[in-house]
């Protein structure tokens, strides 16, 4: 409730039109198909403590959202900066003129990860909003995630596209892009 107005106010207060920043909206999830949506951060925290909500994909893909630093978010009252980490794929609000998603990554796999990596390469600040949140509701698996899980060919193609993406980053950003390749190889 009130997320749209909060985002608009945050965009103005943080002078987003004049700076390169991505506003991170912390993501949570429920395993229940019906949920009374929390009306405030305090209510959401209570639901987290009771176990009716969880940090997004903590049990399946914790690397995707862990850099949001949920323990810090619990008590944050002002936006805080986080650093890029491998496989980070938060939900963000950015200026219209930000880098577009790489069109190689359609379907399932690496669309948000590559986008955040590109934002980081362009030195965007990654700012977590202290009073914003979204909740992912359960749904049937998508056709594309099923293809990813069942097809070695799909996973192989995705790996090839990832390698091409890294090479493209290296060409565009030079030595600054080495951290992405190094991070990928250490996984």
Which key phrases capture this entry?
3-stranded mixed β-sheet, alpha/beta, 7 helices, 187 residues
Summarize the helices and strands and which ones pair or pack.
Blueprint: H1 3-13, E1 21-25, E2 27-29, H2 41-50, E3 54-55, H3 70-75, E4 80-82, E5 91-93, H4 111-121, E6 125-128, E7 134-136, H5 143-150, H6 152-173, H7 178-186
Q: What this model shows, in words?
A:
It holds the Pfam family Glyco_transf_49. One of its GO terms (biological process) is protein O-linked glycosylation via mannose. Its main location: membrane. The protein is an alpha/beta fold. The protein has one domain. Helix content is 41%, strand content 12%. The chain has helices at 3-13, 41-50, 70-75, 111-121, 143-150, 152-173, 178-186, and strands spanning 21-25, 27-29, 54-55, 80-82, 91-93, 125-128, 134-136. The chain is globular. The model has no long low-confidence stretch (mean pLDDT 90).
Q: Are there runs of 5+ residues with pLDDT below 50, and where?
A: none
| Separation, N- and C-terminal Cα atoms | 38 Å
Number of extended strands: 7
**Which bin fits the share of residues in helices?**
40-55%
Strand content: 5-15%
- SSE topology string: HEEHEHEEHEEHHH
Tell me the overall shape: globular
Structural class: alpha/beta
How many helix segments? 7
Computed over alpha carbons, the radius of gyration is 17 Å
The biggest sheet, with number of strands, parallel, antiparallel or mixed sense and barrel status, is: 4 strands, mixed
Mean pLDDT: 90
Strand order in the sheet with the most strands: 4-6-1-5
GO molecular function, one term: xylosyltransferase activity
Keywords: Glycoprotein, Glycosyltransferase, Membrane, Metal-binding, Signal-anchor, Transferase, Transmembrane, Transmembrane helix
Protein name: LARG2 glucuronyltransferase
Organism: Oceanodroma tethys
């Amino acid at each position: 409730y009130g997320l749209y107005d909060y985002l608009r106010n945050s965009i103005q207060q943080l002078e987003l039109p004049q700076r390169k920043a991505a506003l991170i909206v912390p993501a949570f999830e429920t395993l229940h198909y019906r949920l009374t949506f929390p009306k405030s951060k305090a209510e959401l925290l209570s639901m987290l403590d009771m176990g009716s909500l969880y940090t997004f994909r903590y049990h399946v893909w914790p690397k995707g959202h862990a850099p949001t630093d949920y323990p810090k978010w619990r008590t944050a009252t002002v936006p805080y900066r986080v650093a890029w980490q491998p496989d980070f794929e938060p939900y963000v609000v950015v200026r219209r003129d930000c880098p577009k998603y790489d069109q190689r990554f359609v379907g399932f796999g690496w669309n948000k990860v590559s986008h955040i990596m590109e934002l980081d390469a362009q030195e965007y600040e990654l700012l977590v909003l202290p009073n914003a949140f979204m909740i992912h509701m359960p749904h049937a698996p998508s056709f594309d995630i099923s293809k990813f899980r069942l097809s070695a060919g799909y996973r192989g193609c995705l790996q090839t596209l990832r390698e091409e993406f890294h090479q493209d980053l290296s060409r565009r950003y030079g030595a600054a892009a080495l951290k992405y390749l190094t991070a990928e190889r250490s996984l």
